[in-house]
Amino acid sequence: QQQVKQSPQSLIVQKGGISIINCAYENTAFDYFPWYQQFPGKGPALLIAIRPDVSEKKEGRFTISFNKSAKQFSLHIMDSQPGDSATYFCAASKDSGGSYIPTFGRGTSLIVHP
Amino acid sequence: KAGVTQTPRYLIKTRGQQVTLSCSPISGHRSVSWYQQTPGQGLQFLFEYFSETQRNKGNFPGRFSGRQFSNSRSEMNVSTLELGDSALYLCASSRTGGGLEGYGYTFGSGTRLTVV
Q: Taking CA atoms, what residue in B is nearest to A3?
């Protein structure tokens, strides 16, 4: 059973456009939702994260929108740049003995055309 | 500041053999987690060690094991390799176990294991 569902699987946008990636979760015990960015040959890197007590968090061109009642959250990349081309993973986690182990979505491959 | 270092970067093993992968976390990080990444299953959690103790474990068979040393360095071992074990194995470290702002996980670049 996939605990975190991510869509779309792939996304192509033009430079300057808005990229939107959506995720949904099942377990209401999740209370920490990070997004990771992965470039080829590298490990995932933490991009931005949100807790369910806020509905939106913005860091530069990256914004997380969170809908607790719908158990959904999304990543918006404004003014998308070719350098943003990467695979993006949403994740959800909860306290497990002091650790917040991320449960990852399947990933979205983003291509930004110049 | 040095990142998470994983060695080796690439490895080719024969079915039935065993393999040991190494991870050196960021200095001061006491939590080390291991993930398996494949195109079919994505990123799957193997286990987490904190202060030399396994604190969390994923749903992998007993052929997958790990340990952590007093300097927080960690190793994972896979015995009796199967073709399906071919994957990118990622190690991630954090100060306490992630979750708090600024205390998230930092991943290494991984070890690409190919089983033939």
A: B44
**Of the candidates B55, B107, B110, which has its C-beta nearest A99's C-beta?**
B55
Q: In sequence order, which residues have a C-beta less than 8 Å from that of residue B105 and are 6 or more positions away?
A: A46, A102, B33, B92, B93, B94, B98
- B100: pLDDT confidence band, cut at 50, 70 and 90? low
Chain B residues bordering chain A (beta-carbon distance below 8 Å): 4, 31, 33, 42-43, 45, 48, 50, 55-56, 90, 92, 96-101, 104-110
Residue B96, pLDDT > 90, answer no
3-state secondary structure A27-53: CCCCCEEEEEEECCCCCCEEEEEECCC
Percent of chain B with pLDDT over 70: 94
pLDDT digits (tens, 9 = 90+) for B12-51: 999 999 999 999 999 999 999 999 999 988 999 999 999 9
Contact B50 A103 (CB under 8 A): no
Residue B109 CA, chain-centre distance (Å), reads 11
Inter-chain residue contact B42 with A106, CB threshold 8 Å: yes
Q: Is A89 on the interface with B (CB under 8 A)?
A: yes
Confirm or reject contact between A106 and chain B (CB < 8 A): yes
